[in-house]
Predict the structure.
Amino acid sequence: MYGADVAQLRDTAAELRRSAERLTSSRTELSATLAASPWSGPDAERFRGEWQGALSRILQDAGARLAAAADALERNAADQEATSAAGGGATAGAGTASGPYGGSPDHPPAGASAQDVTRWWDSLTPAQQRELLAEHPDRLGTLDGIPAAVRDQANRAWLTHELDRLAAEEPPRTIPNTSGWGVPYGGTVSNPAWDAWHQQVATLQNVQHMLDADRSLSLLLLDTRSGPVEVALAVGDVDTADHVGVYTQGLFSNTANADGVRDAAASVTALNATARDLLLRDGRPGESSAMIMWMGYDAPQNVVDVLSDAQAKTGADRLASFADGIRATNPGTHLTGLGHSYGSLVTGLAASETTAFDSVAVFGSPGIDADGLAAVHVDDGQFYVLQNPGDPVAASGWFGTKPSDLPGAQVLSTAPSAGLSGATGPSGWLPVVGMVSPIGGLVMAGDYALGQHTDYLVEKSTSQNNLAAVVVGARDRMIR
């Protein structure tokens, strides 16, 4: 026999599809069980949060991968039949009827990298691309390797679809109390399903408001598949920009928080304006920049979770893939990862998983990982650190050595300089002497320490200037 056993391919595909359906069914049943469960208390709420975040997504992603693998096997079976019918033998790398890079007009091949996705998309005809954009915007909007302009169109369409769907699916705010705890038996308690629904609606409304208020923004990610909605907003043309920065936040970053989304978007917009100004002052008016506010992971929402790197590791996987997608669609860009606080850990870990980043800048960072710069895939001299003098998180070194102490790290100033504002140390007293956690100092030092930890992106500050200089590679404009 030459080639593949068609019957065996189809049998295996059917088994994979049944397994995918079982995973999907189990995920749905578990979600319903948890929503109706009388289990209450801090442990219950914590587990429900974990389920709605990472755990549910793991099952969903596994089911999707199994289904994609089944599709691939069925396509291989069809290709083998076509080849045999034509009288030819099986030829490695011959491709499929849908294009030279595999997959189908509906989706790329199973396990495709971001570069594979870009090649697959480019292999489709314009008509196939238009049809996929119209029929499956949710699929394109979350697919790393699709051009940013296409993702923006897809995610805007999906945003409208999801707002309409959720408006018609509001669950009851309360459900009967069957546990006997908290209120008399037979009363009602808050419905976790409504809380999750409301969080999704709030996020989508926040995003819609931002897009309506600022027409320069584009929507590069809108993932509503499970748990907190994941979002990425960009200013500038990510597909063509000579310089792109990806900004990741940390503790309390939450897409359902209107202020959090608005403030972060405003920060990247102002940062991009500063980057463009630096290009002009540097004699490079022909170069362009773009900036992305990436909220593509389930960030810690309490002072317990922020002490663990578990959510950072999950976020790093997604950030690395997102960066690979930018690199695949804009291979010549200078790409910088920008991470604040816990987001610096996410960025540092992501930079150890991909070679897509040219530079990394961390600020207010509790550490990037135990291996330090040895694991970060950027060239020598391209890892930058900013640390305010009274920032207790940056002083903690909770996740390994303080980044400012790492050999080879380029430490940039945050102090006032040349007409720029900046953070200064306390006069006559030290708010934080010893640190036992990356959040303990905030409690000890109050508003002063909080400001020292959060003001790195203040407009017209030294730190904002330095971060913009890193993004556009303006070494002479960096203040040390």
